[in-house]
Amino acid sequence: MSVHAHVFKGLEGVYVIDSAICLIDTEKGALYYAGYDVRELVEKSSFEEVAFLLLHQRLPTKSELEEFTSRLRASLNLESKHIETLRKHADNKDTLTMLAMLMVLEGGGKKGGDPGDLEAAINAIAKMGSFFSTIIRIRSGGDYVPPRKDLSFAENILYMMNGGEYRREYVEILDDLLILHAEHGVPASTFASLVTASTLSDLYSSIAAGILTLKGPLHGGASEASYAQALRIGSAERVPQWVESMLAEKKKIMGFGHRVYKIYDPRATVVKELIAKHAATMDSEAKKLYEITQALEDYGQKVLAPRGIYPNIDLWTPILYRMIGVPPDSFTAFFAVSRIAGWAAHILEYWRDNKLIRPLHLYVGEQPRKYLPLELREGS
Ligand SMILES: CC(C)(COP(=O)(O)OP(=O)(O)OC[C@H]1O[C@@H](n2cnc3c(N)ncnc32)[C@H](O)[C@@H]1OP(=O)(O)O)[C@@H](O)C(=O)NCCC(=O)NCCS
After folding, report:
1. Domain definitions of the chain by residue range
2. Which of 244, 256, 316, when mutated, tests ligand 1's pocket best, judged by the most ligand atoms within 8 Å of its CB?
3. CATH number of 222-323
4. Is the pLDDT of residue 1 over 60?
5. From the centroid of its chain, how far is CA 91?
6. Catalytic residue among 82, 258, 278, 346
7. 314 catalytic, yes or no?
8. Are the C-beta atoms of 161 and 56 separated by less than 8 Å?
9. Considering the entire predicted model, what is its pTM?
10. Exposure of 300 by Cβ count < 10 A (0-12 exposed, 13-18 middle, 19+ buried)?
11. Residue 313 CA: which ligand 1 atom is closest?
12. CATH number of the domain at 18-215+329-351, please?
């Protein structure tokens, strides 16, 4: 045992990989995918193009994008085996766990370790989208609606989720949210994916590990927790008193704080701009949620920012999720539909130079001792 060993709790401040996929500028508050500012990608790009960018670390040519888009679209189609499984499990309210199970089944024990396995990556990204949309569709009493060849990825998600009908103005919101959530370095879920991938498990199982790790409220589950929190608060007027009582009880305010950002989360800024752009289409639920969230941001920042705790993206996304019709128990699942692009990109990148992830623990238990037979132990 090394006497110099130091445990980095929560791996805080520890670099675990080198990667060309994403840069988080924590000083300026900016996020780049393979060198491109995510703000510019949100403005000018599509989820299809961003998924290609993350997987290849370069933008596609026109013909490459067309080919990638059509492969993605073809993989959105579900077979009867998928639909049967979805129907059988649709009443299970835990959407995220269902997605993990469906991913593992999709892999069906395929071999892992191939850094060039784009086919699996594209299929996994597309299937996550159609599983998500179809789960919501079946739960609302409808049936599977196959994707359309003339629709983009974001359009197909809305189309399949709503059984054909969707509002045109929501396509931009959905596509922008997909881009914004697609990648963020090595948060817990991506790390979990890499740990699994490093054993040369298959891509689908590695992604399933990411999905299940996304679930917790300290990570991807924060948007659902932040929505539930707004409902509990109930009105903008109650915010100051509510925040004070939470802090007095040493409880956390959901949608605040980040391991990496000790400034305002740049993704939250983009989400707020998107809300402002589409404010005219807000219904009364979204408006009320907006008032509470704004009050929470204002008061929360006043008391928490001096400690480097600022609003994060999950404070604001529930408003957009509700606007585009994502049920509150499926916010995190929507996040997974997007982040799968980042997980897949990291897994393939890691397999280029795979090394089993196997950290150490510093033993603090008893030193080797003599085994006493049961009848000789005190109290026997
Ligand atoms: C995301 C998160 C886990 C990152 O935090 P971290 O780097 O692990 O730091 P810790 O959880 O150890 O918190 C450090 C201190 O800040 C406080 N803190 C962190 N986030 C807080 C929050 N949202 N509300 C109130 N206090 C908070 C902690 O209570 C702790 O205080 P202490 O030093 O007095 O014990 C944390 O900010 C959090 O739980 N936020 C709420 C959940 C959330 O929105 N997650 C989505 C992230 S995108």
Report:
1. 18-215+329-351, 222-323
2. 256
3. 1.10.230.10
4. no
5. 22
6. 258
7. yes
8. no
9. 0.96
10. buried
11. 48
12. 1.10.580.10
